[in-house]
Amino acid sequence: MFKYRIPDILRFVYPKAVWRCSSHERCIYLTFDDGCVPEVTPKVLEILENERIKATFFCVGENVEKYPLLFEELRARGHQVGNHTYNHLKGIKVSFDDYLANVEKADRLIGSPLFRPPYGRITPVQMKALRDRYGYKIILWDLITNDFNKNLSPSEIMRNIKRYTRNGSIVVFHDSVKAAKNMLAVLPEAIKWWKEEGYEFRTL
Ligand SMILES: [Zn+2]
Predict the structure, then answer these.
(1) pLDDT by residue (tens digit) across 85-94?
(2) Can you give the pLDDT at residue 13?
(3) Is 127 domain-assigned?
(4) What is the whole-number distance in angstroms between the Cα of residue 159 and the centre of ligand 1?
(5) Domain count for the chain
(6) What own/partner pairs with CB < 8 Å and gap ≥ 24 does 113-116 have?
(7) pLDDT (tens digit, 9 = 90+) per residue, 38-81?
(8) What is the pLDDT, as a whole number, of residue 69?
(9) Residue 1, in any domain of the structure
């Protein structure tokens, strides 16, 4: 059993995080985590360009440091970027200070007020500090595609996208090598379906 939609209990634990945008409008928010990497991110950019869609990329600081031109290209093409820590750190595994230092290190490379904790794992105290003291907007998600899961086929992922997409959904894909096979197979088909269903694409 794979989770696609975030359980309500978690939304209750983190009430100030953003899970979903307006439920009154037929729109969704595409997000891509864990890039930017030269093997995958340019392919995503090409798909989005052809479909005239802007998305939000939650980049890992280390990747931005390694591939600064690719990161610049993301922004030059009008996409939004967000902070996903410097090296994909799990918040519940490290001290408060280490976590904040890691996020700040990524911020010097990425420079965005949007933050998404890797694995969605962050303590309420860390989240509160990032939000209240550092002014980050914490973005989680309404629908995670599980594209990184090699036990899932593109058609299974597609079926769940159709089942769980709703107005205002923030949708997570991964522009990572691990997820590439599933993600690149599903993304064009999902975009086609969302367009047929009348969804508009927005950035956060
Ligand atoms: Zn991640």
Answers:
(1) 999 998 888 8
(2) 65
(3) yes
(4) 23
(5) 1
(6) 113/137, 114/56, 114/58, 114/80, 114/81, 114/82, 114/83, 114/139, 114/204, 115/82, 115/83, 115/84, 115/139, 116/31, 116/33, 116/58, 116/82, 116/83, 116/84, 116/140
(7) 999 999 999 999 999 999 999 999 999 999 999 999 999 999 99
(8) 98
(9) no
CATH number of the domain to which 170 belongs: 3.20.20.370
Compute, in angstroms, the gap from residue 87 CA to the centroid of ligand 1. Answer: 9
Cα(84) to centroid(ligand 1), Å: 7
CA of 96 to the centre of ligand 1 (A): 19
What pTM, to 2 d.p., does this model score?
0.94
Q: Could you say which of 79, 142, 174, 175 is catalytic?
A: 174
**Among 33, 142, 147, 175, the one annotated catalytic:** 33
CA of 92 to the centre of ligand 1 (A): 14
- Digit-coded pLDDT (tens) for 153-175: 999 999 999 999 999 999 999 99
Catalytic (active site) residue 33: yes
Q: pLDDT value at position 52? A: 97
User: Is 3 inside any structural domain?
Assistant: no
Q: Is residue 96 part of a domain?
A: yes
User: Which domain covers residue 120, as residue numbers?
Assistant: 8-202
Question: What does the alpha-carbon distance between residue 108 and residue 188 come to, in Å, rounded to a whole number?
Answer: 33
Average pLDDT, the chain: 93
Q: Which residues are within 5 Å of ligand 1 (an ion), measured at CB? A: 33-34, 118
Query: CA–CA separation, 27 vs 199, rounded Å?
Result: 5
